[in-house]
Amino acid sequence: MQAEILYSGIFDSHAHYNDERFDEDREAVFASLPEQGVCGIINCGCNVETSRISLEYAEKYPFVYAAAGYHPEQADEYTEEGISAIREILKHPKMVAVGEIGLDYYWPEPDRDIQKAVFEKQLELAKELDLPVIIHSRDAAEDTIEILKKHPGLRGVIHCFSGSVETAKIFLKMGFYIGFTGVLTFQNNRRSVEACEAVPLDRLLLETDCPYMAPVPCRGKRCWSPMIAHTAERMAQIKGVPVQQMIDTARENTCRLFEISF
Fold it and tell me: What is the reported pLDDT for 145?
């Protein structure tokens, strides 16, 4: 689990340490993160069960924070009882956002109308609790934008951004932050690079989406938070700033958005 590059103050704004790929060594992974330069993590829920698990991690580890919600791929699990449970989970002081929520049109299921209805209900929950949102939007930018326009005043991040410059600018104008994963390091991924170029420094977040999206040169490996170093290097190159400054700026942005203080 040695990090290939070590920087300090890394804040992973989006992770899934509840994934089964961490089942064999999860406690050892968490224990090693601070010595690898990681000072903070937001572990995101995808349904009621994983939201509860994320809260358990946040209660156990001082540097872990959590989010709760129905991921669009779990939208068909939505029930009124379930959203009530998520509402109660979100009242805990270490729960910092409603997420991960949104739309995913890459797969044919769940039905798009179900996804949109569940997305809107969770945006309403975020307004009710005055919490930021962590938004997943895959092959669904147009509908994501149209729904967000119906809910002005929300704050949050468009996570794992891979859209166009034009789409990024629309989200920025709406007040959202933009999160980039290891995808930013992939070869021939000019669109993400151009989008990153267009996002102001004070609106950028670094994230892994681990165990997925491992950056170059770690592709094919299980991703974890210290690998953000590689994404930060690429982002720093794009923005023309030192790597440690980029890490520090992204951490400050994360803490400002999610109202986290150390």
Answer: 98
To the question of pTM greater than 0.90 for the whole model, the response is yes
Q: What is the pLDDT of residues 51-61, one digit of tens each?
A: 999 999 999 99
Backbone φ and ψ of 229, nearest 5°:
-50, -40
pLDDT of residue 188: 87
DSSP the chain: ---SS--S-EEEEEE-TTSGGGTTTHHHHHHHTGGGTEEEEEEEPSSHHHHHHHHHHHHH-TTEEEEE---GGGGGG--HHHHHHHHHHTTSTTEEEEEEEEEE-SSS-S-HHHHHHHHHHHHHHHHHHT--EEEEEES-HHHHHHHHHTSTT--EEE-S----HHHHHHHHHTT-EEEE-GGGGSTT-HHHHHHHHHS-GGGEEE---BTS-PPTTSTTSPP-GGGHHHHHHHHHHHHTS-HHHHHHHHHHHHHHHHT---
**Residue pLDDT, tens place only, 201-220:** 999 999 999 999 999 999 99
Alpha-carbon span 146 to 45, nearest angstrom: 24
Q: What is the rounded distance in angstroms from the CA atom of residue 159 to the CA atom of residue 205?
A: 9
Rounded to the nearest 10 degrees, the angle between the axes of helix 190-198 and helix 165-173 is 30
Distance between CA atoms of 192 and 168, rounded to whole angstroms? 10
